[in-house]
Amino acid sequence: MTIKVLLVDDERLIRAGLAAIVSAEPDMTVVGECSDGAEVPGAVASLAPDVILMDVRMPRLDGIQATRRVVGSVPEPPRVIVVTTFENDEYVYDALKAGASGFLLKRARPEEILQAIRMVATGDSLLFPAAIRALAAEHGGGGRGGSGARWHERLTEREADVLRLMARGHSNAEIAAELFVSPQTVKTHVGNVLAKLQARDRTQAVIFAYETGFITPG
């Protein structure tokens, strides 16, 4: 499968650099570029990308609003990776809440960018536990409205354990080893957690867990 990538950044040089990195890979192709978030919905409709590399800060429509529009526009929207200069950027947490599957720093190495694209294209999430924990501590809801307790009751004990390990950045194989179950069992539990949270992927589940106070940054 060739992964179709859409580049969104208001800086032409950034787009050119990303295009050079992506286009050099035999399993990837750049299907288009946008200089502002306002152009993204139309590009998604016409180009049908699999993955969007989305600048989080843009002058007219930022990456948060653009991500929200994309995620809510089509039944199976492309995966969004937001790109930022600073990992503690307040925009990043909001973009993850809006539906992004993860984020990259603009100083990321080419191999890290390519790995991230391949991961989200196959349905995985880019979880950086320390960074998300720090963002949640600064911007998270901390259990606003007491919804965490009610939500917790919907999970089985094993599903709750799986979610906590997901928040620590564990893969299915690592969770399986920790809980002494098969990877396929873990996959089933992860699917149940996502369904009960109505979360698109692991990142959304972990963000929700922090927002409701089920997991605390400390």
Automatic annotation (TrEMBL):
Residues in HTH luxR-type domain copies: 148-213
Listed CDD domains: LuxR_C_like, REC_NarL-like
Matches recorded under SMART domains: HTH_LUXR, REC
Domain Response regulatory intervals: 4-121
InterPro entries: CheY-like_superfamily, NreC/VraR/RcsB-like_REC, Sig_transdc_resp-reg_C-effctor, Sig_transdc_resp-reg_receiver, Tscrpt_reg_LuxR_C, WalR-like
Gene Ontology MF annotations: DNA binding
PROSITE patterns found in the cross-reference section: HTH_LUXR_1, HTH_LUXR_2, RESPONSE_REGULATORY
Modification type 4-aspartylphosphate: residues: 55
Record key words, sorted: DNA-binding, Phosphoprotein, Transcription, Transcription regulation
Gene3D superfamilies in the cross-refs: 3.40.50.2300
Pfam (any one): Response_reg
GO biological process: phosphorelay signal transduction system; regulation of DNA-templated transcription
Keyword Phosphoprotein: yes
Protein name stated in the entry: DNA-binding NarL/FixJ family response regulator
Organism: Actinomadura namibiensis
